[in-house]
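Appendix B, Record 12. Input sequence as logged:
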Amino acid sequence: MKKFVSEVFARNIQEWIPIPRCRQGEKIFHYTDLRALKGMVTEQSFWVTKSDFLNDKYEFRYAYKVIRKVCEKMIPGEENRHLVISGLKHQLEMIDNVMENRVLSGWYVLSFSRQRDSLLLWTEFGKSQGYCLEFEYSSLADSLESGIMLDGYVIYEKEQQKKLIEATINHLLGEKGRSSLKEKLLSEGKKVTEEELYPFLMEFAVCSFVYSMFFKKECFREEKEYRFVFWAFHEEEEGSGMALTPMHFREKNQTLIPYIEVRYQQEGESPICAITVGPKNNSDLAVRGIQYFLRNEKIDIPVYESKIPLRY
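Logged structural output:
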């Protein structure tokens, strides 16, 4: 299964999963605390969180519901529809059990926002006392050392989510040698067998699993999130030949959160364009502290105060 997933991602995954992406020159923003900021600057690394420890614990289940609705709409034959939906659920469970396995390997998500100086994000990620790092998208993406499996905008609108899934199904069914399968699946009277459906379901399940990392409920839309998704292996498995990535742990609310370190290459200027200090009573001191810290590290990055007028 791991080898199969690797092969799927090696073959035109950007075409199979057409998630909208940032363009060169666009800015994205990372909200964090002081400890993580110092690590990003001095160690030139991000702490990238394991996917099942993200803030919305229902987002993966939510994506499956949307995908199921699209299958019900696109596949008119009842028996064919049942085979696809039940087979997809089985494949997704296999991917979750084999790929995640809680220890052996996992998907990791590095989150940004397209919003600068957001009160919601200051409260959620910085506890109104955090810091916001500004990046130019292409400079950041080019500087990351670990291979990015996929990056793109988080999609909150259900209709857009459905259109993306439909596009993926049509693309997979349009692959060479699947004209007969496509005709049967999209017709009312013709039936498919589990054997001829299996290769399509394997690929569709991997795509669906990735979509689950980019689909969220509309109630989260104010975050305007942009994600980089990484895939890491932590324990050697015979014959896999995969490079291993150390798993680390940080504390949050008396809970251990697994993460990996993803380093960025800094040749010349830092990919960090600016740093904004969150709204708080002593923000002037915080700005000066960061300025002295950067000067001591011989790094030239402008530092600003949040423009949100809060008093504590």
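The beta strands are 27-32, 45-50, 105-113, 131-136, 150-153, 225-233, 248-252, 255-263, 272-277, 303-305.
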